[in-house]
Amino acid sequence: MKTLRTAFYALFLIALVAAPPVQAQTVWDLGPKVGVNLDNDELLLGVVARIPLSSLPITLNPGFEFYPGIDDTGGGLSRSLWVMNFDVQYQLEAETVEPYLGGGLSWSRAKTEGQDANSDIGLNLKGGFVFNALGSGRPYVEAALNFANSNESLIFRGGFLFTIGG
């Protein structure tokens, strides 16, 4: 749980540092996400921020993912896995949805009970759609390829973005 709290604080600090000053009246988004990693058939839970750069059609997109289902290796050993993503995305022009393409780096940390933790850095490529607002949130879906440890993982995610600032 300490690792999860530390990662959350790190993501929060990244969002604060990357966010433009308040007087610029820039709007950014923050929200929960859920997904599945098809490489290991595991559910993921997380949080994501989207911070637009006012002068460019590029959005900073840091995120955190925790895999709660990875808790047994078959030998009764508990495991934990979490991933931090440091992505950027390019917003494409469309009328009814906001499509985007992006990429960046991921940093993962896996720990098995009684063993040293393993960390890995990977490359993300992704694409997705942000839909029109439903209530106070805007739903989104995306597909991502992660290349790490000479492996590739296909990950599907979705969630809601809630506006902060503005």
Query: What would you say the CATH architecture is?
Result: Beta Barrel
Number of strands: 8
Q: Please, how many helices?
A: 1
Give the C-alpha Rg.
Answer: 16 Å
Sketch the major β-sheet: 8 strands, antiparallel, barrel
Strand content: over 45%
The total tally of domains equals: 1
End-to-end C-alpha gap: 33 Å
CATH class: Mainly Beta
Shape summary: elongated
Strand order of the biggest β-sheet: 1-2-3-4-5-6-7-8
- At CATH level 3, the topology is Porin
SSE order and pairing:
Layout: H1 2-18, E1 28-37, E2 42-52, E3 58-66, E4 79-91, E5 98-112, E6 118-130, E7 137-148, E8 151-164
Antiparallel strand pairs: 1-2, 1-8, 2-3, 3-4, 4-5, 5-6, 6-7, 7-8
Protein described:
With 166 residues, the protein is mostly beta strands. It has one domain: Beta Barrel (Porin), CATH 2.40.160.20. The protein is 10% helix and 58% strand. It is built from 1 helix and 8 strands. The chain has one helix at residues 2-18; strands spanning 28-37, 42-52, 58-66, 79-91, 98-112, 118-130, 137-148, 151-164. It has an 8-stranded antiparallel beta barrel. A hairpin with a 2-residue loop joins strand 7 and strand 8. The longest helix has 17 residues, at 2-18. The N and C termini lie far apart (33 Å).
